[in-house]
Structures are given as structure tokens and as C-alpha cells.
Amino acid sequence: TWKWVVGPMFLYLCERLVRFWRSQQKVVITKVVIHPFKTIELQMMKKGFKMEVGQYIFVKCPAVSKLEWHPFTLTSAPEEDYFSIHVRIVGDWTEGLFNACGCDKQEFQEAWKLPKIAVDGPFGTASEDVFSYETVMLVGAGIGVTPFASVLKSVWYKYCHDAINLKLKKIYFYWLCRDTHAFEWFADLLQSLEAQMQERNNAEFLSYNIYLTGWDETQATHFVVHHEEEKDVITGLKQKTLYGRPNWENEFKTIAGKHPGSRIGVFLCGPEGLADTLNKQSISNSEADPRGVHFIFNKENF
């Protein structure tokens, strides 16, 4: 038995040593941004840190717990001179991090008072392949929108600096949320992209649809009253927030009709049930003819 065990155990120990060495490297928190509804953004720098879109890291804060590591998706783009994560305060560890960063205090927090942070990673995900397609569908459910913050930022940087050689030509973005709380920080990014694309006369590059799935009658009434206003009352975007869930069959058929003969990447960060639905739609709406339209499904679950 030992002959079969010793090889994998040696590789496992090597991998643990590499991860321990990486986690001991110095990480500097350069900025802490407090977003509405107890969401904080940590901007950090680390020597030799290289990332791709949609990747994630493990984070440890010894001031909160000396043993706990927690995974967070990177929300910055590779083109930026820092890397960042967004943390929503929903438990004991995140509450401890919130307090350790001085976010519970009104006065300005000095940089040297910020806690030490250990970072292991980054680690890859399916979202890294987004630049391999000319057309993509990005579907984020709730907090599963975080990897697409990195994707959209990176796409914009690449578009601004070398739009001619950028293979990606069209993005269909879907965001499903149960309540309005999660809209706050990400809506700011979409507003910025929306304004910049209009300035460059290419508003069609990004098509986005935001769905509020946990609505009630009061919200629906408010939605109807303000639907004719220029900007959405929830997100501040020109694209109106939709209530309920998408009709995925209609969405896939519409996109297939607009891009015949294309390979379309479908990227999901969300629950397993939604993954099954999108996988089935990707298969049923792909043509048998190799020259026809094909949907390539990629997922990461939480």
C-alpha cells in the first residue's frame, strides 16, 4: 500500500509547503472602501502577485482568527496596480474583519493601524476563458456577480487600449438578485461602463439585464409608477430593472438568432440549480451542424 500512498503524499506535502510560503509573503492593505449595506472593499498589494480575470484567493486575518482561511473572488482587473476583494458582512469572521479594519469607527483610520493580512493564491476558474470567444453570456446570481466585476473591468481596459485586436465583440450580462441590497456597489461599476461606452459611441458592446427575483407587490407597484423615468430608480442605470426570473429559452433563441454560426461562451457563477438549467439550454440550442451556432457552458458554483 505504501508504494501507492507515498507518491501522492509527497506531492501533497510539496503543495502545502508552496502554499505556506506564499501565505507568509507580505501583503499591504492600501485602501479600505466602505460600500452600502455593510460591504467593504479591500485593495491590497503583494510583491510578485499576478492574476487573471475571475480568479480567487484565500484570505486569513490573524487578528480575527489565526487558523481560518476564507475564499474571496478578486474584483480587480489584471491591468490595475492593486488587487481587491469585496466582503459582505454576514458572519462572525467577516464582522471581525470589519471591526479590525476600523470600519466601525467614524474617524479616519491610519494605514499602520490596519490589520495584517495573509493571502494564498490566486487560483483559476472557468471565467479565465472569457476572452476566447467573440460573444459571451455572463450570468451572475447574487454575490456570484463578483468574478464578472473583474471580467468587465479587464474587458474595458483592453477595449480602450487595443479594441481592434480584442477578440471579444459582444457581451450579454445577466444579474439575478433576491433584493436590492446587493445592487449598490456593482451598480456603480455598471454606471461607469455605461457612461464610458456612450462616450465612445459603442453602447451596444455590453447588453445587460438585471432581475430582482425576490420582489413583492409593493415593489412591483413602485416599479410600474417609475418605469417611464429616464433612469432606473433602483440602480440608477438606463436599463430598467426587471422583476421575476429570465425566460432562458427565449434568451438563448434570441442570442442564437443574432449570432448564427458562432461559438458563444456561457459563463455562470451561481447555484447548482441554475447551472443545470443553463447547461440544458446550451445543449438544446446548439446546432448539430459544426458550422452552426454552439453554446459552450462554463460554471463555478457556490
What do these coordinates show?
By secondary structure, this protein is α/β, with parallel strands linked by helices. It has two domains: 25-123, Beta Barrel (Elongation Factor Tu (Ef-tu), domain 3), CATH 2.40.30; 128-299, Nucleotide-binding domain of ferredoxin-NADP reductase (FNR) module (Rossmann fold), CATH 3.40.50.80. It is 33% helix and 26% strand. The protein has seven helices and twelve strands. It has a six-stranded parallel β-sheet with strand order 10-9-8-7-11-12, sandwiched between helices. The chain has a three-stranded antiparallel β-sheet with strand order 1-2-5, with no helix packed on it. The longest helix has 22 residues, at 2-23. The two termini are 36 Å apart.
Low-confidence stretches: none
Helix content: 25-40%
Q: How much is the average pLDDT?
A: 79
Hey, roughly how much beta strand do the residues contain? 25-35%
Could you tell me the radius of gyration in angstroms? 21 Å
**The CATH architecture of the largest domain:** 3-Layer(aba) Sandwich
The 3D shape can be described as globular
CATH topology of the largest domain: Rossmann fold
CATH superfamily of the largest domain: Nucleotide-binding domain of ferredoxin-NADP reductase (FNR) module
Strand order of the largest sheet: 10-9-8-7-11-12
Characterize the quaternary organization of these chains: single chain
Number of strands: 12
Specify the structural class: alpha/beta
CATH class of the largest domain: Alpha Beta
**Number of distinct helices:** 7
Count of separate structural domains: 2
Strand-and-helix sequence, N→C? Answer: HEEEEEHEEHEHEHEHEHE
N-to-C CA distance: 36 Å
| Largest pleated sheet | 6 strands, parallel
InterPro entries: Cyt_b245_heavy_chain, FAD-bd_8, FAD-bd_FR_type, Fe_red_NAD-bd_6, FNR_nucleotide-bd, RBOH/FRE, Riboflavin_synthase-like_b-brl
Membrane topology: Multi-pass membrane protein
Domain FAD-binding FR-type: 19-129
Catalytic activity: NADPH + 2 O2 = 2 superoxide + NADP(+) + H(+)
